Amino acid sequence: MFRLLARPLFRLVPDNTRIQFMRGAVLGLIVSAVLSTASVILAFYPGLERGIDFKGGIIMEVRTPQAADLGRVRGAVSALNLGDVGVQEFGSPDQLLVRLPVQADEAGTQRAVNAVRAALEATTPGTRILRVEAVGNRVSAELFRGGMIALGISLIAMLLYIWFRFEWQFGIAAIITLILDATKTVGFLALTQIEFNLQTVAAILTIIGFSANDKVVVFDRMRENLRKYKQMPLRELVDLSINETLNRSLGTSMTLFLSAVPLALFGGDALGGFAWTMLFGIVISASSSVFIAAPIVLFTGAKSLRRETAAVPQAAAP
User: Fold this and answer.
1) Is the whole-model pTM more than 0.70?
2) What's the topology of domain 57-135?
3) What is the predicted pLDDT for the residue at 314?
């Protein structure tokens, strides 16, 4: 029994796997470039669905005595002439989220909230206001700028860390891959119209950190194999390094993926955006280590990473 438990009962891939990933190096880079370009276009048109954190406005979470009539509630709130008003179900049929545009000042915000409260009470007696959030234009602009600065600083920090720990080829490969991962995630948000808010920024930062960790594992094995196999062609060495770390990379990615699935399915609107962004980012990060970061190292280090082979003494001719 103990002998049986001493060995793993399940492995995602066999230990002797020898997949030739670098045969698809060029195709992987082309597909990634196309997807990232499309993601940037989607981020501007139709654009990201900015949440209240970045767009500003008023959010009111309300609960009705029974299942709410969305059409009736929307008509009552729209009749107040407060601007573009949104009403949606939030978690359950008796819980709604009412969105109002930014008002002129704090007094205008308070009048708008009171007017909506009175309209909801008249339409559906017994309605309760559970939460009110108001963010002005200035605050939302500062939050958006802060979120973008946080993303930029994280990318620069990852670049410096990997650059100092490895050769420059690895640093370049890492930063390009992280940028491509981030752009694809933004494209996913634009395509699905998941709210782009502070939660999704936190998800993108988490993805960048996870992606960098995954690439460091592969890069570390590449560096070890560069010292171990001084005569092996770089293409074969890159494939060998990926195969040797494949179980660890897939195992880590699957563990994080499975932990985020319950949040995506049962977290509701409060955590759904964060969780779905994480799920997409995990898949992108795991694949980019193989099909983006490794090919960049292969092409940029084709000569410079193999300079030491010239110093290997040759056997004397008989």
Assistant:
1) yes
2) Alpha-Beta Plaits (3.30.70)
3) 40
